[in-house]
Automatic annotation (TrEMBL):
Residues 191-216 are annotated as: Disordered. InterPro entries: Cell_Proc_Reg/RNA_Proc, FHA_dom, Sig_transdc_resp-reg_C-effctor, SMAD_FHA_dom_sf, WH-like_DNA-bd_sf. PROSITE patterns: FHA_DOMAIN (PS50006). The lineage of its organism: Bacteria, Bacillati, Actinomycetota, Actinomycetes, Streptosporangiales. GO terms for molecular function: DNA binding. Residues 191-203 have a biased composition (Low complexity). This is FHA domain-containing protein. SMART domains: FHA (SM00240). It comes from the Bacteria. Keywords: Phosphoprotein. It comes from Nonomuraea cavernae. Pfam families: FHA. GO terms for biological process: regulation of DNA-templated transcription. Residues 22-72 form the FHA domain.
Length: 216
């Protein structure tokens, strides 16, 4: 087989990787579909750039992606590397060998300058992905518009500018790629979970009681 491929461990199936991007997950729309329940619907993607191949964890799964047992966000691959998507594994092959250090992850570009409104849009976009669910897709333009009380057209214009600023190429899963990049750069973080109040006297009544004690 010419070009990079991955051999799925459970089935022995050999799948050639596409010339640019190959998506991996449990959903029906991905290029490599894995049925293991630990795999997200859209878990990761392989990206080919000239003779190089790297894998990108899409950051929306608790189980993550590993290369040779090590958790990664984005990692250049070498021939024979074992890539794990949750509990599912495969070995990549067909990658040209050269003097290159595969242990080094590709460095991400510095975060671009953002306006306050762009930060609001990114926060709303990523909020579902930062929940405790095993996989939740980023918010849609309509959901962001409802969240920020603006028009959907305005949100789409902001997203177009953000795609340019973060250099997200055209294609499928563009919102997911943007959300993954933003979360990986630490620009948006999970909102702290407020613990539920204990049952008993409501806080308002507790304050009133304390005020009464101080008055007496």
């Amino acid at each position: 087989m010419e070009g990079p491929f991955i051999r799925i461990e459970d089935t022995g199936e050999v799948v050639p990787l596409r010339p640019e991007i190959t998506t991996v997950g449990r959903g029906r729309g991905v290029d490599i579909r894995l049925t293991d329940p630990s795999v997200s619907r859209l878990h990761a993607e392989f990206v080919r750039r000239g003779p190089y191949l790297y894998v990108v964890d899409l950051g929306l799964s608790r189980n993550g992606t590993r290369v040779n047992g090590r958790p990664i966000a984005r990692r250049v691959l070498d021939d024979g590397d074992v890539v794990s998507f949750g509990a599912a594994r495969g070995r990549v092959g067909g990658i040209p060998r050269e003097d290159f250090t595969p242990e080094v992850e590709l460095r991400r570009a510095a975060a671009p300058e953002l306006t306050r409104r762009e930060v609001d849009v990114l926060t709303s976009l990523c909020r579902p992905a930062l929940s405790d669910e095993a996989f939740v897709a980023p918010a849609t333009a309509r959901e962001i518009a409802d969240d920020l009380v603006v028009t959907e057209a305005a949100v789409k214009q902001h997203l177009l500018r953000l795609y340019q600023k973060f250099r997200i190429p055209e294609g499928t899963n563009r919102r997911t790629r943007l959300a993954n990049e933003v979360v990986a750069l630490g620009l948006v973080r999970p909102t702290p979970v407020v613990p539920p109040q204990r049952t008993g006297t409501p806080p308002a009544e507790q304050q009133a009681s304390a005020a009464g004690r101080r008055a007496s």
